[in-house]
Specification:
This protein is α/β, with parallel strands linked by helices. It has 3 domains: about 220 residues, FAD/NAD(P)-binding domain (3-Layer(bba) Sandwich), CATH 3.50.50.60; about 110 residues, FAD/NAD(P)-binding domain (3-Layer(bba) Sandwich), CATH 3.50.50; about 50 residues, no CATH class. Bound molecules: flavin-adenine dinucleotide.
Length: about 400
Protein backbone atom coordinates (compact mmCIF):
# COMPACT_ATOMS: atom_id res chain seq x y z
CA UNK A 1 0.00 0.00 0.00
CA UNK A 2 1.45 3.39 -1.01
CA UNK A 3 0.89 6.63 0.86
CA UNK A 4 0.21 10.09 -0.45
CA UNK A 5 -0.16 13.50 1.15
CA UNK A 6 -3.31 14.72 -0.58
CA UNK A 7 -6.01 12.94 -2.59
CA UNK A 8 -8.48 14.96 -4.64
CA UNK A 9 -11.69 13.12 -5.42
CA UNK A 10 -13.35 14.58 -8.53
CA UNK A 11 -12.17 16.14 -11.78
CA UNK A 12 -14.74 18.86 -12.41
CA UNK A 13 -13.87 22.59 -12.21
CA UNK A 14 -13.17 22.49 -8.43
CA UNK A 15 -10.99 19.37 -8.41
CA UNK A 16 -9.03 20.44 -11.49
CA UNK A 17 -8.39 24.00 -10.29
CA UNK A 18 -7.26 22.70 -6.90
CA UNK A 19 -4.95 20.12 -8.45
CA UNK A 20 -3.48 22.80 -10.74
CA UNK A 21 -2.70 24.95 -7.68
CA UNK A 22 -1.35 22.13 -5.52
CA UNK A 23 1.15 21.21 -8.25
CA UNK A 24 3.05 24.35 -7.35
CA UNK A 25 3.19 23.52 -3.64
CA UNK A 26 6.61 22.00 -3.07
CA UNK A 27 6.86 18.76 -1.17
CA UNK A 28 3.17 17.88 -1.26
CA UNK A 29 2.43 14.70 -3.15
CA UNK A 30 -1.03 14.96 -4.65
CA UNK A 31 -3.16 12.47 -6.55
CA UNK A 32 -6.40 13.40 -8.30
CA UNK A 33 -9.06 10.96 -9.50
CA UNK A 34 -12.12 11.15 -11.72
CA UNK A 35 -13.45 11.20 -15.25
CA UNK A 36 -12.65 14.80 -16.26
CA UNK A 37 -15.75 17.03 -16.55
CA UNK A 38 -18.02 13.97 -16.36
CA UNK A 39 -21.01 15.91 -15.00
CA UNK A 40 -20.75 18.47 -17.81
CA UNK A 41 -20.04 15.91 -20.56
CA UNK A 42 -22.71 13.41 -19.57
CA UNK A 43 -25.41 14.99 -17.42
CA UNK A 44 -26.12 18.34 -19.06
CA UNK A 45 -28.35 18.72 -22.15
CA UNK A 46 -26.76 18.93 -25.60
CA UNK A 47 -27.17 22.44 -26.98
CA UNK A 48 -27.11 24.06 -23.53
CA UNK A 49 -25.53 27.51 -23.11
CA UNK A 50 -23.82 28.50 -19.87
CA UNK A 51 -25.69 30.99 -17.74
CA UNK A 52 -22.46 32.36 -16.27
CA UNK A 53 -20.89 35.03 -18.43
CA UNK A 54 -17.47 34.87 -20.14
CA UNK A 55 -15.35 36.07 -17.20
CA UNK A 56 -17.16 33.75 -14.79
CA UNK A 57 -16.67 30.71 -17.03
CA UNK A 58 -12.88 30.56 -16.71
CA UNK A 59 -10.87 27.72 -15.21
CA UNK A 60 -8.16 28.78 -12.75
CA UNK A 61 -4.50 27.77 -12.52
CA UNK A 62 -2.06 29.80 -10.36
CA UNK A 63 -0.91 32.16 -13.14
CA UNK A 64 -4.16 31.97 -15.10
CA UNK A 65 -2.14 30.80 -18.10
CA UNK A 66 -4.92 28.52 -19.27
CA UNK A 67 -7.72 31.02 -19.76
CA UNK A 68 -10.56 30.79 -22.28
CA UNK A 69 -8.66 33.32 -24.40
CA UNK A 70 -5.48 31.19 -24.33
CA UNK A 71 -7.53 28.12 -25.29
CA UNK A 72 -9.08 29.87 -28.26
CA UNK A 73 -5.73 31.32 -29.40
CA UNK A 74 -4.09 27.90 -29.31
CA UNK A 75 -6.86 25.73 -30.71
CA UNK A 76 -8.79 28.11 -32.97
CA UNK A 77 -12.04 26.89 -31.36
CA UNK A 78 -13.83 30.23 -31.47
CA UNK A 79 -17.12 30.88 -29.73
CA UNK A 80 -18.45 33.84 -27.79
CA UNK A 81 -20.78 34.41 -24.83
CA UNK A 82 -23.13 32.87 -23.93
CA UNK A 83 -20.58 30.10 -23.79
CA UNK A 84 -21.85 26.88 -25.44
CA UNK A 85 -21.67 23.72 -23.32
CA UNK A 86 -19.57 21.84 -25.90
CA UNK A 87 -17.09 24.74 -26.10
CA UNK A 88 -16.78 24.94 -22.32
CA UNK A 89 -16.23 21.18 -21.99
CA UNK A 90 -13.53 21.19 -24.69
CA UNK A 91 -11.87 24.16 -22.98
CA UNK A 92 -11.94 22.45 -19.57
CA UNK A 93 -10.52 19.22 -21.02
CA UNK A 94 -7.71 21.24 -22.64
CA UNK A 95 -7.13 22.92 -19.25
CA UNK A 96 -6.89 19.47 -17.65
CA UNK A 97 -4.31 18.26 -20.19
CA UNK A 98 -2.22 21.40 -19.67
CA UNK A 99 -2.54 22.05 -15.95
CA UNK A 100 -3.42 18.63 -14.50
CA UNK A 101 -1.66 16.05 -16.70
CA UNK A 102 -1.25 13.75 -13.69
CA UNK A 103 -5.03 13.15 -13.43
CA UNK A 104 -5.93 9.49 -12.90
CA UNK A 105 -9.31 8.82 -14.53
CA UNK A 106 -10.20 6.00 -12.15
CA UNK A 107 -13.17 6.14 -9.80
CA UNK A 108 -12.83 6.30 -6.04
CA UNK A 109 -14.95 3.59 -4.48
CA UNK A 110 -14.56 4.33 -0.76
CA UNK A 111 -12.91 6.74 1.64
CA UNK A 112 -12.57 5.51 5.21
CA UNK A 113 -10.85 6.88 8.29
CA UNK A 114 -7.77 4.89 9.30
CA UNK A 115 -5.40 5.76 12.16
CA UNK A 116 -5.87 9.51 11.83
CA UNK A 117 -5.46 9.31 8.02
CA UNK A 118 -7.70 8.01 5.24
CA UNK A 119 -7.80 4.76 3.38
CA UNK A 120 -8.81 5.33 -0.24
CA UNK A 121 -9.97 2.39 -2.34
CA UNK A 122 -10.30 2.72 -6.10
CA UNK A 123 -12.78 1.02 -8.42
CA UNK A 124 -10.08 -1.37 -9.66
CA UNK A 125 -9.25 -2.49 -6.12
CA UNK A 126 -6.06 -0.43 -5.56
CA UNK A 127 -5.97 0.94 -2.02
CA UNK A 128 -3.64 3.47 -0.42
CA UNK A 129 -3.52 5.83 2.53
CA UNK A 130 -3.74 9.58 2.25
CA UNK A 131 -3.02 12.19 4.91
CA UNK A 132 -5.71 14.46 3.51
CA UNK A 133 -8.69 13.99 1.21
CA UNK A 134 -10.33 16.82 -0.73
CA UNK A 135 -13.84 15.97 -1.90
CA UNK A 136 -14.77 17.83 -5.11
CA UNK A 137 -17.47 15.43 -6.25
CA UNK A 138 -20.19 17.85 -7.34
CA UNK A 139 -23.95 17.80 -6.90
CA UNK A 140 -25.15 14.89 -9.00
CA UNK A 141 -26.11 12.64 -6.02
CA UNK A 142 -28.21 15.48 -4.58
CA UNK A 143 -30.83 15.70 -7.37
CA UNK A 144 -34.12 16.64 -5.70
CA UNK A 145 -36.88 14.17 -6.67
CA UNK A 146 -40.13 15.08 -4.88
CA UNK A 147 -41.85 12.16 -3.10
CA UNK A 148 -44.94 12.24 -5.34
CA UNK A 149 -42.77 11.06 -8.26
CA UNK A 150 -40.86 8.34 -6.42
CA UNK A 151 -41.18 4.80 -7.77
CA UNK A 152 -42.26 5.93 -11.24
CA UNK A 153 -40.28 4.42 -14.13
CA UNK A 154 -37.55 6.48 -15.76
CA UNK A 155 -39.34 6.26 -19.15
CA UNK A 156 -42.11 8.37 -17.59
CA UNK A 157 -40.26 10.60 -15.11
CA UNK A 158 -36.67 11.79 -15.14
CA UNK A 159 -34.67 14.49 -13.39
CA UNK A 160 -32.72 16.99 -15.47
CA UNK A 161 -29.57 15.41 -13.94
CA UNK A 162 -30.45 12.11 -15.66
CA UNK A 163 -29.94 13.82 -19.01
CA UNK A 164 -32.35 11.69 -21.04
CA UNK A 165 -31.66 12.80 -24.67
CA UNK A 166 -34.29 15.34 -25.73
CA UNK A 167 -34.34 14.05 -29.32
CA UNK A 168 -36.23 11.06 -27.92
CA UNK A 169 -39.28 13.28 -27.31
CA UNK A 170 -39.86 14.53 -30.87
CA UNK A 171 -43.66 14.60 -31.43
CA UNK A 172 -44.34 13.76 -27.74
CA UNK A 173 -46.04 15.69 -24.96
CA UNK A 174 -43.65 16.59 -22.14
CA UNK A 175 -44.33 18.48 -18.89
CA UNK A 176 -41.41 20.19 -17.19
CA UNK A 177 -41.54 21.19 -13.51
CA UNK A 178 -39.48 24.10 -12.21
CA UNK A 179 -38.81 27.80 -12.67
CA UNK A 180 -35.00 28.02 -12.65
CA UNK A 181 -32.45 28.09 -15.44
CA UNK A 182 -32.28 24.32 -15.80
CA UNK A 183 -36.08 23.88 -16.10
CA UNK A 184 -36.47 26.84 -18.47
CA UNK A 185 -33.58 25.84 -20.72
CA UNK A 186 -34.69 22.20 -20.76
CA UNK A 187 -38.20 23.29 -21.78
CA UNK A 188 -36.75 25.40 -24.60
CA UNK A 189 -34.44 22.63 -25.84
CA UNK A 190 -37.27 20.07 -25.71
CA UNK A 191 -39.49 22.36 -27.80
CA UNK A 192 -36.63 22.97 -30.22
CA UNK A 193 -36.29 19.18 -30.50
CA UNK A 194 -39.91 18.92 -31.65
CA UNK A 195 -41.71 18.10 -28.36
CA UNK A 196 -44.94 19.77 -27.26
CA UNK A 197 -43.94 21.26 -23.90
CA UNK A 198 -45.78 22.66 -20.88
CA UNK A 199 -43.71 24.26 -18.14
CA UNK A 200 -45.35 24.04 -14.70
CA UNK A 201 -44.06 26.66 -12.28
CA UNK A 202 -45.19 26.39 -8.65
CA UNK A 203 -44.84 30.09 -7.85
CA UNK A 204 -44.93 33.38 -9.73
CA UNK A 205 -43.71 33.63 -13.34
CA UNK A 206 -39.96 33.04 -13.66
CA UNK A 207 -37.51 35.87 -13.13
CA UNK A 208 -34.91 36.71 -15.76
CA UNK A 209 -31.45 38.19 -15.44
CA UNK A 210 -31.81 40.54 -18.41
CA UNK A 211 -31.08 43.68 -16.37
CA UNK A 212 -27.69 42.46 -15.35
CA UNK A 213 -26.25 42.67 -18.86
CA UNK A 214 -27.48 46.25 -19.29
CA UNK A 215 -26.11 47.38 -15.91
CA UNK A 216 -22.81 45.63 -16.59
CA UNK A 217 -22.25 47.88 -19.59
CA UNK A 218 -22.19 50.94 -17.30
CA UNK A 219 -18.46 50.67 -16.51
CA UNK A 220 -17.39 51.91 -13.05
CA UNK A 221 -20.94 51.99 -11.64
CA UNK A 222 -21.51 48.41 -12.64
CA UNK A 223 -18.37 47.34 -10.74
CA UNK A 224 -19.91 48.72 -7.54
CA UNK A 225 -23.04 46.66 -8.14
CA UNK A 226 -21.72 43.45 -9.66
CA UNK A 227 -18.61 41.38 -9.14
CA UNK A 228 -16.83 39.69 -12.08
CA UNK A 229 -18.11 36.38 -10.65
CA UNK A 230 -21.62 36.99 -12.01
CA UNK A 231 -23.04 35.59 -8.75
CA UNK A 232 -25.72 37.38 -6.70
CA UNK A 233 -27.98 40.37 -7.38
CA UNK A 234 -26.86 44.01 -7.61
CA UNK A 235 -25.20 45.20 -4.39
CA UNK A 236 -25.10 41.73 -2.86
CA UNK A 237 -22.84 40.40 -5.63
CA UNK A 238 -19.66 42.01 -4.28
CA UNK A 239 -20.33 40.66 -0.78
CA UNK A 240 -21.00 37.05 -1.75
CA UNK A 241 -18.01 37.11 -4.11
CA UNK A 242 -15.74 37.77 -1.13
CA UNK A 243 -16.19 34.75 1.15
CA UNK A 244 -13.98 36.06 4.02
CA UNK A 245 -16.18 39.20 4.12
CA UNK A 246 -19.37 37.16 3.91
CA UNK A 247 -18.22 34.97 6.79
CA UNK A 248 -18.15 38.02 9.07
CA UNK A 249 -21.94 38.36 8.84
CA UNK A 250 -24.33 36.63 11.24
CA UNK A 251 -25.44 33.13 10.33
CA UNK A 252 -28.97 34.36 9.49
CA UNK A 253 -27.59 37.02 7.15
CA UNK A 254 -25.25 34.53 5.46
CA UNK A 255 -28.17 32.16 4.92
CA UNK A 256 -30.30 34.97 3.54
CA UNK A 257 -27.58 36.16 1.14
CA UNK A 258 -26.93 32.61 -0.05
CA UNK A 259 -30.56 31.84 -0.73
CA UNK A 260 -31.12 35.25 -2.33
CA UNK A 261 -28.17 34.69 -4.67
CA UNK A 262 -29.19 31.26 -5.92
CA UNK A 263 -32.94 31.74 -6.17
CA UNK A 264 -34.39 30.38 -9.41
CA UNK A 265 -34.00 32.72 -12.40
CA UNK A 266 -33.33 32.33 -16.11
CA UNK A 267 -30.76 34.02 -18.31
CA UNK A 268 -32.26 36.95 -20.24
CA UNK A 269 -31.46 35.31 -23.59
CA UNK A 270 -33.83 32.43 -22.79
CA UNK A 271 -36.96 34.60 -22.71
CA UNK A 272 -37.62 34.93 -26.48
CA UNK A 273 -36.89 31.23 -27.00
CA UNK A 274 -39.65 30.33 -24.48
CA UNK A 275 -42.36 31.42 -26.90
CA UNK A 276 -42.78 27.86 -28.15
CA UNK A 277 -43.43 26.63 -24.57
CA UNK A 278 -46.81 26.74 -22.79
CA UNK A 279 -46.25 28.11 -19.29
CA UNK A 280 -48.59 27.50 -16.34
CA UNK A 281 -47.61 29.40 -13.18
CA UNK A 282 -48.91 29.27 -9.61
CA UNK A 283 -49.81 25.57 -9.92
CA UNK A 284 -48.15 22.41 -8.74
CA UNK A 285 -48.57 18.72 -9.41
CA UNK A 286 -50.15 16.84 -6.50
CA UNK A 287 -50.07 13.35 -7.99
CA UNK A 288 -48.80 11.41 -10.97
CA UNK A 289 -50.04 8.00 -12.07
CA UNK A 290 -49.12 5.85 -15.08
CA UNK A 291 -51.94 5.30 -17.56
CA UNK A 292 -50.79 2.82 -20.19
CA UNK A 293 -47.56 4.19 -21.66
CA UNK A 294 -48.38 7.72 -20.47
CA UNK A 295 -48.51 9.65 -17.22
CA UNK A 296 -51.57 11.36 -15.78
CA UNK A 297 -50.75 14.45 -13.71
CA UNK A 298 -53.22 16.05 -11.31
CA UNK A 299 -52.62 19.69 -10.43
CA UNK A 300 -53.55 21.42 -7.17
CA UNK A 301 -56.65 23.01 -8.82
CA UNK A 302 -57.89 19.55 -9.86
CA UNK A 303 -56.93 20.01 -13.52
CA UNK A 304 -55.35 17.05 -15.24
CA UNK A 305 -52.73 16.56 -17.93
CA UNK A 306 -51.76 13.41 -19.79
CA UNK A 307 -48.14 13.48 -20.94
CA UNK A 308 -45.61 11.08 -22.44
CA UNK A 309 -42.92 12.26 -20.05
CA UNK A 310 -42.38 14.44 -17.00
CA UNK A 311 -39.04 16.18 -16.57
CA UNK A 312 -38.14 17.35 -13.07
CA UNK A 313 -36.19 20.59 -13.16
CA UNK A 314 -36.48 20.62 -9.41
CA UNK A 315 -32.86 21.35 -8.59
CA UNK A 316 -30.60 19.86 -5.96
CA UNK A 317 -30.67 19.54 -2.16
CA UNK A 318 -27.23 19.24 -0.61
CA UNK A 319 -26.86 16.27 1.74
CA UNK A 320 -23.29 15.05 2.18
CA UNK A 321 -24.47 11.74 3.60
CA UNK A 322 -25.46 10.91 0.01
CA UNK A 323 -21.85 10.77 -1.13
CA UNK A 324 -21.84 6.98 -1.25
CA UNK A 325 -18.01 6.77 -1.33
CA UNK A 326 -17.76 8.19 2.21
CA UNK A 327 -17.91 5.35 4.71
CA UNK A 328 -20.88 5.63 7.11
CA UNK A 329 -18.52 5.87 10.08
CA UNK A 330 -16.57 8.71 8.48
CA UNK A 331 -19.57 10.69 7.30
CA UNK A 332 -21.21 10.38 10.73
CA UNK A 333 -18.25 12.38 12.13
CA UNK A 334 -18.79 15.27 9.69
CA UNK A 335 -20.66 18.02 11.50
CA UNK A 336 -23.44 19.34 9.27
CA UNK A 337 -26.09 22.06 9.05
CA UNK A 338 -29.12 21.38 6.87
CA UNK A 339 -27.15 18.72 4.97
CA UNK A 340 -24.10 20.96 4.34
CA UNK A 341 -20.79 20.21 6.07
CA UNK A 342 -19.78 22.92 8.52
CA UNK A 343 -16.37 23.96 7.24
CA UNK A 344 -13.54 25.71 8.99
CA UNK A 345 -10.50 27.45 7.51
CA UNK A 346 -9.12 25.75 4.41
CA UNK A 347 -12.50 24.12 3.67
CA UNK A 348 -11.76 21.54 6.38
CA UNK A 349 -14.65 19.58 7.87
CA UNK A 350 -14.95 18.66 11.55
CA UNK A 351 -12.89 15.58 10.60
CA UNK A 352 -9.27 16.82 10.51
CA UNK A 353 -7.78 16.31 7.05
CA UNK A 354 -11.13 15.91 5.26
CA UNK A 355 -11.98 18.90 3.03
CA UNK A 356 -15.04 19.54 0.86
CA UNK A 357 -15.28 21.92 -2.11
CA UNK A 358 -18.00 23.05 -4.50
CA UNK A 359 -21.69 23.56 -3.72
CA UNK A 360 -21.54 21.59 -0.42
CA UNK A 361 -19.18 24.34 0.80
CA UNK A 362 -21.97 26.88 0.24
CA UNK A 363 -23.21 26.99 3.84
CA UNK A 364 -19.75 27.98 5.06
CA UNK A 365 -18.33 29.96 2.11
CA UNK A 366 -21.49 31.21 0.43
CA UNK A 367 -23.22 30.97 -2.94
CA UNK A 368 -20.03 31.59 -4.96
CA UNK A 369 -19.19 27.95 -4.26
CA UNK A 370 -22.08 26.79 -6.46
CA UNK A 371 -20.39 28.18 -9.56
CA UNK A 372 -17.27 27.78 -11.67
CA UNK A 373 -16.19 31.32 -10.70
CA UNK A 374 -15.76 30.11 -7.10
CA UNK A 375 -12.87 27.87 -8.14
CA UNK A 376 -10.50 30.86 -8.13
CA UNK A 377 -11.07 31.57 -4.44
CA UNK A 378 -11.41 27.94 -3.37
CA UNK A 379 -8.29 26.63 -5.11
CA UNK A 380 -6.11 29.51 -3.88
CA UNK A 381 -7.45 29.28 -0.35
CA UNK A 382 -7.02 25.56 0.05
CA UNK A 383 -3.58 25.45 -1.60
CA UNK A 384 -2.32 28.30 0.64
CA UNK A 385 -3.77 26.54 3.67
CA UNK A 386 -2.13 23.22 2.82
CA UNK A 387 1.18 24.90 1.96
CA UNK A 388 1.20 26.62 5.38
CA UNK A 389 0.34 23.38 7.13
CA UNK A 390 3.10 21.54 5.22
CA UNK A 391 5.63 24.22 6.23
CA UNK A 392 4.67 23.95 9.89
CA UNK A 393 4.76 20.12 9.91
C1 LIG B 1 -27.76 22.24 -15.89
C2 LIG B 1 -26.69 22.99 -15.14
C3 LIG B 1 -26.11 24.12 -15.67
C4 LIG B 1 -25.10 24.80 -15.00
N1 LIG B 1 -24.58 25.92 -15.56
C5 LIG B 1 -23.60 26.57 -14.91
C6 LIG B 1 -23.00 27.74 -15.47
O1 LIG B 1 -23.40 28.22 -16.54
N2 LIG B 1 -21.98 28.35 -14.80
C7 LIG B 1 -21.53 27.88 -13.59
O2 LIG B 1 -20.61 28.48 -13.03
N3 LIG B 1 -22.09 26.80 -13.02
C8 LIG B 1 -23.10 26.14 -13.65
N4 LIG B 1 -23.67 25.03 -13.07
C9 LIG B 1 -23.18 24.59 -11.77
C10 LIG B 1 -22.02 23.61 -12.01
O3 LIG B 1 -22.48 22.32 -11.92
C11 LIG B 1 -20.93 23.88 -11.04
O4 LIG B 1 -20.49 25.21 -11.15
C12 LIG B 1 -19.68 23.00 -11.26
O5 LIG B 1 -19.96 21.81 -11.93
C13 LIG B 1 -19.07 22.71 -9.96
O6 LIG B 1 -17.91 21.97 -10.17
P1 LIG B 1 -17.50 20.76 -9.23
O7 LIG B 1 -16.09 20.45 -9.57
O8 LIG B 1 -17.87 21.06 -7.84
O9 LIG B 1 -18.48 19.56 -9.65
P2 LIG B 1 -18.64 18.71 -10.99
O10 LIG B 1 -18.45 19.54 -12.19
O11 LIG B 1 -19.93 17.98 -10.86
O12 LIG B 1 -17.45 17.67 -10.92
C14 LIG B 1 -17.45 16.62 -9.99
C15 LIG B 1 -16.58 15.51 -10.52
O13 LIG B 1 -16.43 14.54 -9.51
C16 LIG B 1 -16.37 13.29 -10.12
N5 LIG B 1 -16.68 12.25 -9.14
C17 LIG B 1 -17.81 12.10 -8.42
N6 LIG B 1 -17.72 11.00 -7.66
C18 LIG B 1 -16.51 10.45 -7.91
C19 LIG B 1 -15.83 9.29 -7.43
N7 LIG B 1 -16.39 8.46 -6.56
N8 LIG B 1 -14.59 9.02 -7.91
C20 LIG B 1 -14.00 9.86 -8.81
N9 LIG B 1 -14.61 10.96 -9.30
C21 LIG B 1 -15.85 11.25 -8.84
C22 LIG B 1 -17.37 13.37 -11.25
O14 LIG B 1 -17.08 12.42 -12.18
C23 LIG B 1 -17.19 14.81 -11.72
O15 LIG B 1 -16.31 14.88 -12.82
C24 LIG B 1 -24.68 24.34 -13.74
C25 LIG B 1 -25.27 23.19 -13.17
C26 LIG B 1 -26.27 22.53 -13.85
C27 LIG B 1 -26.90 21.32 -13.23
Amino acid sequence: MTNTDVTILGAGPYGLATAAHLRSVAGLETRIFGDPMWFWKSQMPAGMLLRSDWGASQMWDPKHEYSLEAYQAETGDHFSAPVPLAGFVNYALWFQRKAVPHLETRRVETVEAENGHFRVTLGDGEAFTSRRVIIAAGICPFARRPAEFANLPMELVSHSADNVPFSRFRGKRVAVIGGGQSALESAVLLAENGASVELLVRGAPPKYLGWRKKIKSLGAISKLLYSWTDVGPAGISNIVSNPPLLRMFSRDTQNYLRKRSIRPAGAGWLKPRLEAVTMTCGRHVTSAKPVGAQLQLTLDDGAQRVVDHLLLGTGYKIDVTRYSFLSPTLVSRVETADGFPKLQDGFETSVPGLHILGAPAGWSYGPLMYFVAGTKFASRTISNYLANRARKA
